[in-house]
Design a protein that fits this description.
With 308 residues, the chain is an alpha/beta fold. It has a single domain, classed as UDP-N-acetylmuramoyl-L-alanine:D-glutamate ligase (3-Layer(aba) Sandwich), CATH 3.40.1190. It is 33% helix and 25% strand. The protein contains eleven helices and 13 strands. The strands form two sheets. The chain has a nine-stranded mixed β-sheet with strand order 5-4-1-8-9-10-11-12-13. A four-stranded mixed β-sheet has the order 3-2-6-7. Helix 9 runs antiparallel to helix 10. The two termini are 22 Å apart.
């Protein structure tokens, strides 16, 4: 396996609203729908679609099969041997409210959280993979143990900080960083994470262990930045990519990690992530607009003038 993702599998209900209200005021829902989601499966599914052998370590409820989610991931070839069903429980439910200016507010429901602490480090799964990617959800103590184990077994560790409430535990982030090689966060999340760590800039995180720190731009007007000890790489969005909505970070990470698995240089990985994320713009469900490798290759050539 090239890539193992660890985190929550979820069913996302996305509400597109006129605006995000404040206080006791309301807003009109323009349309809504439920889609296959969760940051770990988003990354694994997109990577699999692009030809990378991926798997997931996670918990699900009884509705994982009845919703069609298992069948969807099976068809993509995602390894689900690390997915455990908890009988009588529901798969994580995420409720996302987003307006046309990409302002968002998210709520999560899960009766699986208490079961994560009963899981063991999936040593054999980690032993079989080259890169382990951690996302939101799960149990932070288990994540730290898994990251330590991956490092000991010679696997590269990737970590997307995201917006999980557990990330308010600064000790969790500090415990993960020594084991992380590739760290990701979008530019809206970056300032809060940097502040929590008592730092000034995202590149300061390099002093805590990561070799690569990436701040992902969710706006086409700004660049994504990849920080290393050798300097900074700026990556533009594809021409005409427009406003990028829900799932842009997951899609970028998936493209970036696919690049790593293919042996590409960091600049190419960043560009690949940017191109993959551009296909997700406007998608209410990340996995409903996953591009093929030929589509990505064509847009990469058109945007950057070289072949991938």
């Amino acid at each position: 396996m090239d890539l193992l993702t660890i985190g929550s599998i979820a069913l996302d209900t996305v509400f597109v609203v006129t605006h995000i209200p404040t206080g006791h005021f309301g807003a009109r829902i323009k349309h809504f729908g439920t889609y296959f989601g969760g940051r770990a499966p988003n990354v694994a599914a997109i990577a699999a679609k692009l030809g990378t052998k991926s798997g997931i370590y996670s918990l699900v409820g009884d509705d994982f099969e009845s919703s069609g989610y298992r069948s969807h991931l099976d068809k993509l070839g995602v390894d689900l041997s690390g997915v455990t069903r908890i009988q009588g429980k529901k798969t994580v439910q995420i409720f996302i409210f987003v307006d046309e200016n990409n302002n968002q507010i998210t709520f999560a429901y899960s009766d699986l959280l208490d079961h994560w602490k009963d899981l063991q480090v999936p040593v054999e799964l980690i032993r079989q993979t080259r890169l382990v990617h951690f996302t939101t959800g799960g149990n932070y103590l288990l994540n730290v143990d898994c990251a330590k184990n991956a490092t000991e077994l010679g696997c590269a560790v990737s970590f997307d900080l995201g917006n999980d409430p557990v990330l308010e535990k600064t000790d969790y982030i500090r415990s993960m960083l020594p084991h992380v090689k590739y760290l990701f966060m979008n530019d809206l999340e970056a300032k809060k994470h940097v502040d929590r760590l008592g730092l000034k800039d995202p590149e300061d995180i390099l002093n805590f262990g990561p070799q690569v720190v990436t701040t992902i731009s969710i706006s086409p007007e700004t660049h994504t930045h990849i920080f290393t000890r050798e300097g900074k790489i700026a990556v533009a969005h594809p021409i005409g990519s427009g406003e990028i909505l829900i799932g842009a970070s997951d899609a970028f990470v998936a493209g970036f990690l696919v690049g790593l698995s293919n042996g590409y240089e960091l600049t190419e990985c960043g560009r690949l992530g940017s191109v993959v994320s551009s296909f997700i713009r406007g998608a209410k469900g990340v996995q409903s607009k996953m591009p093929s490798w030929s589509q990505v290759s064509e847009r990469y050539l058109k945007t950057f003038g070289s072949r991938i």
